[in-house]
Amino acid sequence: MSPWKARRSTLTWTMSFKRYRQAGGYSESSIKVQDSHISQLLSWCTLQSIEPQGITYNQVLEFIDHQRKRGIKHQSIAGMVNSIRIYFDYLVEIGCATHNVFRRIRLRQAGRRALPQVLSQQQLEKIYQAFANLPLWHHRSSRARLIHQRDTVVLGLMIFQGLDSGQLSRLEPAHLNLEKGTLYVPSGRKSNARILDMHTMQVLAMKTYLDKTRPQLIQMQKQDPGAYLFMVKKPGEMVARIMRGVKRIDPQVTGSRQIRSSVIMGWLKRYNIRQVQYMAGHKSIRTTESYRLQDLTDLTRQLELFHPLR
After folding, report:
1. How many CA atoms lie within 13 A of 138 on its CB side?
2. Mean pLDDT within 10-39
3. Which helix or strand (DSSP H or E) is residue 305 part of?
4. Are residues 130 and 272 in the same domain?
5. How far apart are CA 212 and CA 69, in angstroms?
6. DSSP code of 109?
7. 161: closest CA among 42, 280, 286, 295?
8. Cβ pair 129, 156 in contact under 8 A
9. CA separation, residue 137 to residues 2, 111, 205 (Å)
10. Could you report the per-residue pLDDT of 26-53, keeping only the tens digit for each?
11. Does the residue 62 lie in any domain?
12. Domain count of the chain?
């Protein structure tokens, strides 16, 4: 296509897209800003040798990260994404694109929680070993020693299976298969059921808990243990106490949510996203994808991204 024809084609597109937005009620000033935002995407696509209509999800994330590296503020990037989303809606409507990939992106709004700093698998295993091997003098009574043995099992389930307090509270002894080294995690309101492998590091502690520790705790507490693996009325308080002990071991630990996020991020480096969705118990692949954002670039820039898919 000659330069003149390309210019005329661009002009025709511009006018048509402008009418599309005018029909949507956008003001002249808004349209002008939108055109600037769209031009930035098109320029970046040209430099990256990317056909804009075929831009992929990961390429969109790269474009967003490019803007962040340029020092563009979060609110400005959010506005840019909104402008480009309108553009792709238009492309889909006129048949120049099959879908609007920008509808899969939402920037985290103020007040939403960001994912915490990720701990490596090596860090997590060291934390588990240090917690499990606290000296006997650290426990002031036989009951305290038993509770610590139970807490070690709980911490192992958090570090190796990525369980949260709600999932821990639903576990029953029958869900464990020590011969096969597997654990059945029942479904909940926000999670699917799944079967997970146990780490060799936690099997002995689990066997000790089932055979000795749990029966002794039941006898001491003189209460009906019910069907659950851990006889506690408030699992959240149990996990919070464990976290206080873990923080004394490693000050980088901020809480149980950080541990679960770290486990899932570690899985994403070893397994495909569908496998991770299953292992994490996510009902939607969209939840799993939110963790994958951190793999793109530096964590501190990616923590603010949020994208419920619609």
Report:
1. 14
2. 80
3. strand 305-306
4. yes
5. 56
6. P
7. 280
8. no
9. 84, 44, 19
10. 888 889 999 999 999 999 999 999 999 8
11. yes
12. 2
Tokens describing residue 151: 């807490």
Do 132 and 270 fall into the same domain?
Answer: yes
DSSP state, residue 71: T
Among 125, 79, 303, 276, CA closest to 196: 276
- How do beta strands 106-107 and 305-306 pair? antiparallel
Residue 53, domain extent: 3-107
What is the value of pTM for the model shown?
A: 0.61
pLDDT digits 0-9 by tens, 109-168: 544 445 557 889 999 999 999 999 988 777 778 888 999 999 999 999 999 999 999 999
Question: Is the domain of 195 the same as that of 97?
Answer: no
Structure confidence by residue, pLDDT tens digits, 119-132: 899 999 999 999 99
Judge whether 186 lies within some domain: yes
Question: Residue 195 belongs to what H/E stretch?
Answer: strand 194-197
Is 225 a member of any domain? yes
**Distance separating alpha carbons of residues 10 and 13, to the nearest angstrom:** 5
Q: What does the block give as tokens for 248?
A: 């004394």
Residue 107 pLDDT class (50, 70, 90 cuts): low
Considering the domain boundaries, does residue 132 fall inside one?
A: yes
